[in-house]
Design goal:
16% strand; alpha+beta; Dipeptide-binding Protein, domain 3; D-Maltodextrin-Binding Protein, domain 2; 660 residues
Length: 660
């Protein structure tokens, strides 16, 4: 054992150098103010992304990382209004909103003339050509083609006239070739017409439906239905997923799949301006309180042509702390603070004094989604609704909001989130304040046949909870669930899975209880109600395998109705059935506390669409001034470094003198 009293013990000069060199380098680094964006030109939006993008190929864009990167490269027929709440659709590459037949089965769009794809080597001479109605048809068919493997096929499945038969014919052709020992071309039969997609002329697109599909317009604003040139797909082949070509305001100039993606302004982007309702009455769409947004400063760039930025740099910062530190240093322009930093940034839901002093703005946004616990209603035990009710009553939702979301959520009393038509403040198995109702839970447990948690066989009831991850947060929730169930006499075994492993169990109906969350694909309650429609049972999206005849009838009736008071009433009734029957235990609607740097202008955050980045602007002078102020070099490390260097030199001299 070494102690400081050992005779003759001394730190050798070479050991000192090895020990202190890393420290010296660290001190030198702390004395500087490194610029993470050297030689950057123009106004560039800086974003930190917590997920790596998987693909820039529109039919394969199903994840947040890919969607946020690709949203500025591609356009579709329609897009979300950048500021209006509730959400509104406006034309993108369509000249106007479509004309709709009286039976609501035919939608006719006029395509904007003169819109060009971005310049790219896939075109002859490198110059992007004009977009036509046939381009949309080709992209829609590629989305439906079985060889593409689009995860969002359900959006068109059974909706477009002739499309399902066309898709099955492509599968049959591929099987014949396989039997003959031949390989099928990647897009076998792509040029075969589809009855439901027609282009009467170069700029007219007609879509014919099997039955009314009110959500079609929302679907036509999703990344899946963006337009891109067939030339790019044929030219880049598999690499098209990494080399997007669209019509949007930005184009990809650099893509490192583990580091960053860099977008630069597209010089051929069509003329689009920031809405200017004060000077242009045509920009005043119904349902948009534009005067309120004007007062908030969101319309500071009203009437200006977009993009106002020269580029967007999206850096992949997968860990929470680096993203938070980048934002605090001013190197990211906006951020939803990580859970562990929420109290530092927005204690009690309000900006901290430090954030206020920096001029940072808070834009809280209720997430369009619901966190819930899914109960497998086909499981022999959980098929009993009274057992499901007992489990729901034993939950302490206050704890969930306080500890899992640091108070940045509201208790979900309805599977439909507030602000979406169909939301009701009703749940017979939630208390008003979210407290667990242990005695009521025990009563329902006894009613289910398990008094005190003991079944007819004399054994204690034991359930299994599937956890999707081994993070501290996931473990915290699972441990809490075990203790809550134990309070009513039920034991729970926790199984830790990866998220894909858990989903696979659910597809095969081999689970009892699992924690999930649903983020809306579009702001229509049908998007979440479909998850409980009987015919959608596993391996479909109805993982709870919930079957309720009345719910299914209401769903089918509502699914063909346009947005109306009648449809809202049906949604409300379905929400009431779910609350009564408890196939889900609705837990929380999360709140995103979006923090924005003071130099960021005209930016309204949402996670329903990512195209709002297009309307952002940067006060570059303000940014540069504040970055210098916030990241002034620290001088004391230089002094300490000099002292350490002198000490090392003196120690070397002494050691040299001792040598014979």
């Amino acid at each position: 054992m070494l102690t400081g009293e050992k005779p003759g013990f001394m730190l050798r000069p070479m050991s000192a150098r090895k020990a202190f060199l890393p420290l010296c380098l660290l001190l030198l680094q702390g004395a500087c103010s490194p610029d993470p964006y050297p030689n950057e030109k123009g106004k560039v939006l800086h974003v930190g992304l917590r997920l790596l993008p998987k693909s820039f190929d529109p039919p394969l864009i199903e994840d947040e990382g890919s969607g946020k990167c690709a949203a500025h490269v591609y356009d579709g027929l329609l897009q979300y209004h950048p500021y209006a709440r509730p959400y509104k659709l406006i034309p993108a590459l369509a000249e106007s909103m479509p004309s709709v037949s009286e039976d609501r089965l035919t939608f006719t769009f006029r395509i904007r003339k003169g819109v060009r794809f971005q310049d790219d080597p896939c075109f002859e001479g490198g110059r992007g050509r004009e977009v036509t109605a046939e381009d949309f048809i080709w992209c829609f068919k590629r989305f439906a083609h079985p060889a593409t493997g689009a995860k969002g096929w359900w959006l068109f499945d059974g909706k477009i006239r002739g499309l399902n038969a066309w898709r099955e014919a492509r599968k049959a052709e591929a099987r014949k070739l396989k039997v003959a020992g031949k390989d099928a071309p990647p897009l076998l039969g792509i040029d075969v017409p589809v009855e439901g997609f027609k282009a009467p002329d170069r700029y007219t697109l007609r879509i014919r439906l099997v039955k009314p599909y009110p959500q079609l317009l929302w679907v036509l604003a999703m990344p899946y239905t963006s337009v891109y040139p067939r030339e790019a797909v044929l030219y880049y082949k598999e690499e098209f997923r990494n080399h997007p070509v669209g019509t949007g305001p930005f184009r990809v100039v650099e893509f490192n799949p583990v580091y960053r993606v860099v977008l630069r302004r597209n010089p051929t982007f069509r003329e689009v301006r920031v809405p200017d309702p004060r000077r242009r009455p045509g920009d005043r769409i119904p349902g948009w309180d534009w005067k309120k947004d004007e007062e908030r400063g969101l319309l500071v760039n009203a009437g200006k042509r977009i993009p106002l930025l020269d580029g967007i740099e999206i850096r992949f910062l997968l860990e929470d702390q680096p993203r938070w530190l980048y934002f605090k240093a001013g190197y990211l322009d906006f951020l939803n603070p990580p859970k562990d930093n929420t109290d530092e940034a927005v204690p009690g839901g309000k900006l901290s004094p430090e954030m206020k002093a920096r001029g940072i703005r808070l834009d809280p946004w209720p997430e369009l989604g619901t966190v819930y616990t899914c109960l497998n209603c086909e499981d022999p035990l959980l098929a009993n609704p009274d057992l499901r009710r007992a489990i729901a009553l034993a939950y302490d939702h206050r704890w969930t909001v306080a500890h899992l979301y640091s108070g940045q959520a509201v208790i979900a009393k309805c599977l439909i989130p507030p602000g979406v038509a169909g939301y009701i403040d009703y749940h017979p198995y939630h208390s008003d304040d979210g407290r667990a109702q242990v005695e009521r839970a025990k009563a329902f447990l006894a009613k289910a046949g398990y008094p005190g948690g003991i079944g007819p066989d004399g054994k204690r009831l034991r359930l299994t909870f599937e956890n999707s991850g081994a993070s501290a947060t996931a473990k915290m929730f699972a441990d809490r669930f075990v203790s809550e169930m134990r309070r009513i006499g039920v034991e729970v075994d926790v199984v830790v899975n990866t998220f894909p492993q858990m989903l696979e169990k659910m597809r095969k109906k081999k689970f009892q209880i699992a924690g999930l969350a649903w983020g809306f694909d579009y702001p229509d309650a049908q998007n979440i109600l479909q998850l409980l429609y009987g015919p959608n049972g596993s391996p479909g999206p109805n993982a709870a395998n919930f079957e309720n005849e009345r719910f299914d009838r209401l769903y089918e009736k509502a699914s063909i109705l346009p947005d109306s008071p009648e449809r809202t009433r049906l949604y409300e009734e379905m929400a009431r059935i779910v609350a009564d029957e408890v196939p889900w235990i609705t837990r929380a609607h999360r709140i995103r506390q979006n923090l924005q740097q003071p130099w960021l202008k005209g930016f309204r955050y949402t996670e329903t669409t990512y195209q709002y980045w297009r309307y952002a602007d940067i006060d570059r002078g303000m940014r540069e001034g504040l970055l210098k102020e916030w990241n002034r070099p620290t001088r004391w490390p230089l002094v300490l470094f000099a002292l350490l260097f002198s000490w090392l030199g003196l120690a070397s001299v002494r050691q040299a003198r001792r040598k014979p």
